[in-house]
Amino acid sequence: KEVNFFRLYFNTILVGLLTTAGTLLTTILAAFAFARLNFKGKEVLFSILLATMMIPGEIFVITNYTTIASWDMKNTYPALVLPFIVSVFYIFFLRQTFRQIPNELYLAAKVDGTGDFKYLWKVMIPMAKSTITSVTILSMMGTWNAYVWPNLVASDKDMLLVSNGLLSVYKDVDGNGQIISFQMAAAVLVTVPLIIVFLLLRKQIMNGVSRSGIKG
Question: Using alpha carbons only, how large is the chain's radius of gyration in Å?
Answer without folding.
Answer: 20
